[in-house]
């Protein structure tokens, strides 16, 4: 059985399409856990209505605590041998879980992965390829290097055994950005193998630009904590090779500094923290020339970097 976990918060405009796509799966042995995370729109009513028409649906209604807490609550009661996650404003193709299940079983992997489609990328690949990854350095880096794999939860099927075996059944509820990447990277590194299909079965909907690169908020500082956990946990075991994660850490750190300065939202403690992070890694540990240069200028003269950044990106 596959458990599909859907955290829901104020998704009334998208939820029915999402649920219809799950119920239309050609793989029928499903447990569908809907976690209504304190929605104040019609999401609760929609969940209740669908639970009446399909016995595979299980409901959790709770006060709003965030997506990580919602996923944790679902994992605690999940009974499937495999677990998938679907965001409530997206939808999936009918054969997604059938094909991910066949892939994970045929390759004896712990995780299977498919591609995804957006409005800018609307078709499934003409030629579908499959590959399996066993090398740890490749497993950790493909999450950043290959955007179609990514550090997302929603385009993957996880063995429940590996989740339970490694004691990672719970998401860190204090991480609000890159929490998916943190969780997924741990499971990837603990897996014996990961199998990937280039076929795009997941339909991802974007709602404006919520990137860490474009706005500042204190909650986005937790992305740095997530990345630092990944780097600290795995850099010794794979003898370095985490330059992409260090690049991402420094990119987010500099972006938060620049946007925080522009929006005048930085307090003294946060400013000192972000400035200190500029020296966390040797410039030789960074892969991107552009990020190396930005980091160097910030170290020498933060105000100069802000003027340059504001002229090119801050408008």
UniProtKB/TrEMBL annotation:
Keywords: Glycosyltransferase, Transferase. It comes from the Bacteria. Residues 3-157 form the Glycosyltransferase 2-like domain. InterPro entries: Glyco_trans_2-like (IPR001173), Nucleotide-diphossugar_trans (IPR029044). SUPFAM superfamilies: Nucleotide-diphospho-sugar transferases. Coiled coil: none annotated. CDD domains: Glyco_tranf_GTA_type. One of its GO terms (molecular function) is glycosyltransferase activity. This is Glycosyltransferase 2-like domain-containing protein.
